[in-house]
Amino acid sequence: MTPYGRPKGELTAARRASVALMSARDLARGLAVAAMAVCTGCSTVGNGRLVRLDEPAARSLLATGTTTRSDVLQDFGQGTIVHFRSGWETWQYQYRECIAKGWDQVPYIGLITSRLARPTKELIVLFDDRGVVRRWSLQQFDDREIRPGAR
Amino acid sequence: MARRTDACSTALRRAAVLALAALPGASGLGATAPAPAASEPATQQVQVTAPLPGARDEKTLSQLFAAQEAFERHHALAPDATLGFRLYARLDPQELARLQLWLVDGRERTPVPLDSHRRFALSPDWSRVFADHGARLRTNLPDGAVAWHVDVRSPGVPGDRRRLGDLRLECEADTFHGDLQRGLRTPVSAILDASDELCLGDDAQAWFAERPIFGVALVAGERRRTLPYRYLHGSNGTMAMAALFDWPYALRDRTYFLPLDDRSWPDDTLVEFDAMDDPQPGPSP
Questions:
Q1: What are phi and psi for residue B97, nearest 5 degrees?
Q2: By the CB < 8 Å criterion, does A149 face chain B?
Q3: B90/B149 Cα distance (integer angstroms)
Q4: C-alpha B181: how far from its chain's center?
Q5: What are phi and psi of A134, to 5 degrees?
Q6: Could you report the predicted ipTM of this complex, rounded to two decimals?
Q7: What's the pLDDT tens digit per position in A36-51?
Q8: Which runs of E-coded beta strand occur in B129-212?
Q9: What part of B 221-250 touches A (C-beta under 8 Å)?
Q10: I need a labelling partner for A126 at 20 to 30 A (CA). Which of A14, A36, A104, B30 fits?
Q11: What is the DSSP letter of B279?
Q12: How deeply is B34 buried, as exposed, middle or buried, from its count of CB atoms within 10 A (0-12, 13-18, 19+)?
């Protein structure tokens, strides 16, 4: 029996259309919830210190040839690491408005979210094979500056 | 001298018998094998085994001609440029020292000279007939050890910079034409290519700088844009999808992508590199 009191297979055409419509509504509701999940809050890699970090503050915290990985870990939390064959590596910290953390890394979904034009701030720290800071860069950009077509 | 040789040979035979006897299961074999008759002359069998050489990294001459055709079709991107091809060590930079290249046509093998950057150009002696016969450009390195790249150079561009139009043309000549990059060719890519839009995607092609890089900037007159980190090192989730791209880990610190979809940058735009071992810039003015 169906929830509507009729044996299975005896749904009227109108009821079938109604059920199909409900399924479509459920799907639309699900997509809306997913979209809200993507666009809720901000995406931050690290401990959030990047949000208020400016260049003088970065310069005082990141002394090339002196500051170590553990210093950076303490100041900024864990960044996203890219390793190189040479033993060097980069730590990436990023703050993006409106994209919940992790979506950019999800296969296929990341293809869309990583292309959404949002104000972004990023700090990249380069460590040598001894774990000492060699370079760093701090920049803010809006993807629309990179891709005018994304407007 | 002859006696000494006989003595050595006998000693060797004894050692071989002892070694065989020491092998697990050898005694069993000895028990079932028929004993040689006393009058039968002793024979010595020597078996030499060597691994067959695996497949070598290679491209067909047809692929290079296809790249040339696409290069000529899109030549307006770099009117003064010349077409070449470049080989990179994809897995182990040490292998570059022993890298060699040949044109293989049937049983004939002709060396192809490489310059100091491991570049070569199509020789006027290479004809379509060779290509139709299945001629190949073959390296001496195992399959997968080499990253092949179309190399387009306009005259007058400093060695530490690249011209954007040259790089756009490299993409056009390679992707779906020369097809030199490794990786999957997705149906979506095929559709975009059919409409000549594939090289308008920022992840259509990976390039490799001469040195490990920490930044890439586009410069056109007064306009300058330092690219976000996602264009470097395959650091972005999408661009790091190894299956889709020629993913040479040995070259990761030199890898960059470009915002090819932004056509507001003219072809004469220069691509500048900030090397990892450059000094940290001073405070911004």
A1: -60, -30
A2: yes
A3: 11
A4: 9
A5: -105, -40
A6: 0.73
A7: 444 445 667 777 788 8
A8: 136-142, 146-153, 161-163, 207-208
A9: 225-230, 233-238, 241, 249-250
A10: A104
A11: P
A12: exposed
